[in-house]
Amino acid sequence: MKRGLSILAAIAMVFALAVPALAEADSAAGVWSEVSVVGAWTPAVVESAGELLTPAEVGIDFYMEILGDGTCEIMRNGQSTTAVWLRNGSIVIVQDDFYGIQRFELMEDGTLTAMADEDMTVVFVRDGALTAAGLWTAASVTAGSETFDPAEMEMDLTMDLAEDGTCALTLNGRSEAGSWTQYGMNVAVWDAQGAVQRFELMEDGTLRAALGIQTLTLVRNGVAEAGETGTDSES
Questions:
Q1: Which of 55, 89, 148, 175 could form a disulfide with 43 if both were Cys (CB 3.0 to 4.6 A apart)?
Q2: What is the Cα–Cα distance from 11 to 54, expressed in whole angstroms?
Q3: 152 pLDDT tier (thresholds 50, 70, 90)
Q4: Contact partners, residue 157, CB within 8 Å, separation at least 6
Q5: pTM flag (> 0.85)
Q6: Nearest to 16 by CA among 233, 231, 211
Q7: Residue ranges per domain, the chain?
Q8: 130-220: what fold?
Q9: Cβ(135)–Cβ(163) below 8 Å
Q10: Which CATH topology does 39-126 take?
Q11: What are the Cα distances from residue 142, in Å, to 86, 158, 181, 197, 231?
């Protein structure tokens, strides 16, 4: 018997067939402020021609620690160097003797981005940022103004996102290994066959994915959703 669909592809098919959606669900936007960029940064994901890739797939091995004294320690492909940096608004300029001037941009979601070439953007995350690691369970599906229980769609889904970047995806009793990365409040999950799905870590502590014009909401460790399905939360 031929191998079936990957888990992420199967989930997409469930949404395409089971829910007659009426309108796109809202997406929460990050709140940008003049936060410090001091800290240790590592590449989390690479966006190239509309695709999400891991840094390893494109040969990026990079670590950068921005210090408060205007210097910056960089480790690239096993070689270390000391650079200087300055900031103008959301733009961060780093200069070292090996690679010259590099331009980064601080984004609204707290990540740093840099253009590797014309169609490739590298997204960096700061060590110690809020993590999506944990066990997540599908809690609801929203289509327009309607909310469905995943059980109504015969979808029993869990995602176990481990701290080491691996994950276990389980759909209706079938498990599959995968990998994941986080950049800001965005989470990318790859299954064993290379299918990728983007998620967003919300202010209310849930994890959400837009699949077509439906929104899948997952809760961590089976904890009930806080309030109604929406983008607002109390602070």
A1: 55
A2: 22
A3: confident
A4: 11, 137, 138, 150, 169, 170, 171, 172, 218
A5: no
A6: 211
A7: 39-126, 130-220
A8: Lipocalin (2.40.128)
A9: no
A10: Lipocalin (2.40.128)
A11: 44, 18, 25, 17, 13
